[in-house]
Amino acid sequence: MPLDRYHPYALALMRIVSGLIFMEHGTQKLLGFPAGGHGTVELMSLFGLAGAIELVGGLLLVLGLFTRVVAFVCSGEMAFAYFMAHAPQDFFPVNNGGDAAILYCFVFLFLVFAGAGAASLDGARGRSA
User: Which helix (H) or strand (E) holds 96?
Assistant: First the structure.
């Protein structure tokens, strides 16, 4: 298939974009930037731990460093967030605001199995799929 040769680059693009957006959730929780959401939170709280995972995990995903392990942790965080914060509000994700958490969970789970793709520090270290 002609597009198959672009697979590592498409994978890298998905990893980088999802990592950047995920990191933004962490900066919002921990640094109050961009403004909105819950405001800054205490680091030693569930929201603080989530913010730390999002900020550090997002950065590591952007860099493509320890991608499989980091993606596994981030996927787990999103599953936990969905069932703790969203699912109790309503059964349907579109009504409980949890659709992004579900998407992140499965994008990160995919990265656990797919690896970092191109343009990654894992690839430079010889650890990419």
Answer: helix 93-96
Query: Residues 64-90, buried b or exposed e (16+ Cβ, 10 A)?
Result: bbbbbebbbbbbebbbebbeebbeeee
- Cβ count near 35 (within 10 Å): 7
Higher pLDDT, 19 or 35: 19
Taking the complete model, does pTM exceed 0.85, yes or no?
yes
Residue 103 falls within a domain, yes or no? yes
> Encoding tokens for residue 59?
């950065």
Smallest CA-to-CA distance from 108 within 52, 48, 58 is with 58
How many whole angstroms separate alpha carbon 24 and alpha carbon 66? 20
Domain that holds residue 81: 2-121
The band of 126, judged by pLDDT with boundaries at 50, 70 and 90, is: confident
Assigned domain for 49 exists: yes
Quick check: 129 pLDDT over 70?
Answer: no
Instruction: Count structural domains, the chain.
Output: 1
Q: How far is it, in rounded angstroms, from Cα 101 to Cα 80?
A: 9
Both tokens assigned to 31: 């640094």
